[in-house]
Amino acid sequence: MTTAPTTAESGDGINHGRRVIVAWLVLSAIATPLVAIFVGPEIPPGNGTLQGQGQVFDNQVMTALITPIFALLVVFFAYGLYQFRVRRSEAGTIVDGPPLRHDPRVQIAWMAISTTIVLFLAGFGTYELLKDGAGGGQGPNPIAVPAAYKNAFQVQVIGQQWQFTYRYPSLGDLESNQLVLPANSNVTFHVTSLDVVHSFWAVELGLKADANPGVDNVVYAQTKGPMTFHVRCAELCGLWHGYMYNNGRVVPPAQFRTWAASQQKIWSSIKKYAPPYSHTYLPDPQERAG
Amino acid sequence: MTEAAVAPAPPLWRRLIGFNLLTGLVLGVVGWYAGWFGAHAIVGPSIDYFGDIDYNELSVFMAYIGGVVGFLAGLGFFNYPFARLRGYPPSLREKEEGGFGRYFTLCTDHKVVGIQYLWGIGLFFFVGGLNAMLIRTELLRPDHQVFPAGTYLTIVGVHGTMMMGMMTSGILGPFANYLVPIMIGARRMAFPRIEAFTFWLLMAAGVILQTTVFFGGFPTGWTGYAPLSNEGNPGMDCYILFFALVGISMTLLGLNMVATILTMRAPGLTWTRLPIFVWGVLSTAVLMVLAAPVLVATLSMEALDRTAQTTFFVPGGGGSNYLYENLFWIFGHPEVYILALPGFGIVLELLPVFARKPLWGYRLAVAGLLGVSLLSWFVWQHHLFVSGMNGDLRPFYMLSTELISIPTGFTFLCGMMTLWRGRITFTVPLLFCLAWFFNFLLGGLSGVFLSDTPSDVTTHGSFFSMAHFHYTIMGGLVFAFFAGIYYWVPKMTGYELHNGLAKIHFWTMFLFFNSTFAPLFAVGFLGQPRRAVTYPSGLQFLNDWVSVSAFALGISMLIFLFNLIWSLAFVRRPALANPWNSLSIEFQLPSPVPVHNFDRIPVFSGDPYGYGEGRGPIAPVPAGAPAGRD
To answer: What does the pLDDT read at residue A3?
Structure first.
């Protein structure tokens, strides 16, 4: 080493910690409500379904929660890097900082706070998830079936390379390439695939479920008012994955009945060529082996 | 090496003959064709039995296996085992005094392997980066194909696979191989030949992945999900071989690190005196040893599905795609911490040097590293939150995923408190470390949304998750990687890097990195799925913004590349032995480090963080003391 380092004075009489904490509290007190009120509710997916609303609420709570964390680090680094920098006038001499190696109070406080936040998040997320499934695929036999969905309107979503088709078992197994849902009603989606893994993503409704071959993946949704929404495949499924999308509609019940009647007219003539309705359509392995 | 020992150099053509990279390439091509035609000879008569229709998977696998074996033979990896079989006595070292040529051979000097890794991984890192540029070119327009659909998917797949496969060893390869023996006061790694083997195997794997373009590419991205991988082109086999070879390389690299750190520490180097970087390497290496074999096994099953018509992952034949997804992510989630943890180690190692303070909360930092590596085994199903695999386990995986932020927080606390009341000098390595905090903070906070199952329903598989893992991997690992480069490369090569260019590189990289990936959080929430070539036309402005930023990020990387080559090959300003006034032991050695590292094995009397305490890590040797261990 070229120059023998000297140690800086152990204290400069300023309570830096208190300054940071005060600045952080002030910033958090201003920023957190602003974020919670103005940013949180704007985060997608929106109010298309009860489940989507639940996600928006989740996002609102979490953005409010991470704002003070972000503010703490911003204040800490902004203050610390400015206050403790080596001034230009001092450049060239090596002066060591005070040899602080640990502080049990800081460590325990940090652990306690981070553990509390984590446990709160896990509990909150679990509650929100089990309430109504949150719009996610839950597999064939979810334990947490909300009572409202026991007799819900059934829609089957069938993924295949590279489009979605939809079957409506309560409309005489009607099969269509249009996803139309009645407004203000409970819907149970059964998502499955004929070939590779796809993922059914109804963007504005806040629903997503992987379509696995041979698996019935259940999603619950309670639709709200009439709207249109995008459906996309969200799992890479091969060559035309990027083109595997279409639009869906939520329509008033009367309009839904008109649409169903018009579709059934077409369907009645081709129904005999379609396989009978089933939760999965696993192809015959002998035929698929090639 | 004394002057008298230098013999007159043989002519150039004579030096090119022997066991070196050139021979390796020649034998690699020979082996490739031997495998190709050998497999055709097997499969040709029994084509019905194998049930292949339009191409011959087995010959692709056999060709590449033959090529790799030939390559390794040409480099001389089989010489020593055969010599031992023929009764020659054991010898430890190979090609350690061979001048510049040893960088192109099997060399067991850990410092040479470290520099080989730096350039080799750097090469493939730039290849992966070029693929990213192509992806962003394609996404300039919402529905206009610059590349054919299959080519686009191959570009996405090669980018992801190359980055994940190569950068897994991105810090352990160059920096840990070079520095761990020095930091622990040893003269070599525990298994020097295996150390060289991991490097050359990785290079062979990288070439194999690139050649996927000659076999139609692969459509699956880096995850290789079955059953899509079963129907992919023969290019899929290149993916399988690449990742399996990377898995073998990773396992051995990790094993070597664990063995070295456990058994070869110098006297006095107790567990609480170990540099924190070595702890980071150790926690990573344990994950590598345990996780990578799962990947090799999974891909072997996939290879059998494709060649021998087994049905491990074919739902119609009694298999399950869930099996693949589980196995892949049991490897895949520890893998992302394999990427992140060495970065934690570098950041915590560098902060004390530039804050001129001891590392704050050493034990807490170690607990953080070990806690992350332990918890990383219990979170993998968060990749499958909407897969329908086992919906009732989601609350558990939500909890375990959120728990992992506690030990990660330890790293933050220790880093921040090390800076607190320090004497901070804003050198380029420190700037990269500070950027690491910012990027990893955003990566971690966005992870809150992904770990929360209800919110994950929308963000899952979207550009939001893509932005999240670029913030943690590129913002975390790659920024730490560059911090390591600017900090240690003058030591490793003996030449300074240009400081002004380094600062330009840092500021452009930091700015354009954030400008590239921050908008993608919004894009993901608004409904753009990953890996899809189209997107809603309303998102074009954001996508174009991202693309332009990504090109600027690419230019920033070129500035770095220019600096590296300009400084090391042309300017060649000798670096000081200790340019940072660091107390760490590698900076107490001359620059570049002599072949045997230490004239005398050091005796440690403390950790390397005695800033402000007026002591270094090594006990002063009394005059006339007996020589250290050999």
So the answer is: 42
Residue with tokens 């503010």: A71
Q: What are the φ/ψ torsions at residue B184 (nearest 5 degrees)?
A: -95, 10
Q: Which pLDDT score, from 0 to 100, does residue B545 have? A: 96
**Residue B486: which of B600, B555, B567 has the closest Cα?**
B567
Indicate if the pLDDT at residue B617 is higher than 80: no
Q: Which of B220, B454, B610 sits opposite A54 (nearest CB)?
A: B454
Using the predicted structure, report yes or no on whether residue B2 has a pLDDT greater than 50. no
Angle at which helix B479-493 crosses helix B499-525, to 10 degrees, equals 160
Contacts of B542 in chain A (CB under 8 A): none
Contacts of A210 in chain B (CB under 8 A): 384, 386-388
Report the residue from B311, B385, B419 with minimal CB separation from A136.
Answer: B385
**Fold of the domain built from segment(s) A147-284:** Immunoglobulin-like (2.60.40)
Cβ within 8 Å, pair A80-B420: yes
Contact A73 B437 (CB under 8 A): yes
CB interface of A with B, residues 216-235, below 8 Å:
217-218, 230, 232-235
**Long-range contacts: B370-374, Cβ < 8 Å, 24+?**
B370/B279, B370/B283, B370/B407, B371/B404, B371/B406, B371/B407, B371/B410, B372/B283, B372/B337, B372/B340, B372/B341, B372/B344, B372/B404, B372/B407, B372/B408, B373/B283, B373/B284, B373/B286, B373/B287, B373/B334, B373/B337, B373/B341
Domains of chain B: 20-81 (no CATH), 107-588 (1.20.210.10)
pLDDT at A6: 53
Going by C-beta distance under 8 Å and a sequence separation of 6 or more, which residues neighbour residue A13?
Answer: none
* B423 to A97: CB separation less than 8 angstroms, yes or no: yes
pLDDT at B226: 87
Per-domain residue ranges for chain A?
Answer: 6-96+103-135, 147-284
CB A121 within 8 Å of CB A50: no
Cα–Cα distance, A208 to A133 (Å, whole number): 11
| Average pLDDT of the residues in B430-448 | 95
* Regions in chain A scoring below 50 on pLDDT: 1-4, 8, 10, 286, 288-290
Length of chain A: 290
Whether the Cβ atoms of residue B237 and residue B156 lie closer than 8 Å to each other: no
Q: What is the pLDDT of residues B507-524, one digit of tens each?
A: 999 999 999 999 999 999
Question: Is some CB atom of chain B closer than 8 A to the CB atom of A92?
Answer: no
In chain A, residues 261-280 whose CB comes closer than 8 Å to chain B: none
pLDDT number for residue B38: 87
Smallest Cβ–Cβ distance between B453 and the set A91, A129, A201 belongs to A129
Q: Does residue B482 register a pLDDT over 60?
A: yes
Task: Give the torsion sign (CA, A168, A171, A177, A178).
Answer: negative
Out of A114, A217, A240, whose CB is closest to B406? A114
Tell me the helix, strand and coil percentages in chain A, rounded to 5: 45, 25, 30
Work out the average pLDDT over B234-242. 94
pLDDT in tens, B72-94: 999 999 999 999 999 888 876 66
Spatial distance between the Cα atoms of A124 and B452, rounded to a whole number of angstroms: 9
Closest CB to A208: pick one of B357, B416, B460. B460
Contact: A99, B531; criterion CB under 8 Å = no
- Out of A77-86, B169-178, B340-349, B387-396, which region has the weakest mean confidence (pLDDT)? B387-396
Q: Are B114 and B54 in contact (CB under 8 A)?
A: no
- Which chain B residues contact residue A114 at CB under 8 A? 405-406, 409
Q: How far is A157 from chain B (nearest CA, A)?
A: 14
CB A126 within 8 A of CB B395: yes
Give pLDDT tens digits for B134-172.
Answer: 999 999 999 878 999 889 999 999 999 999 999 999 999
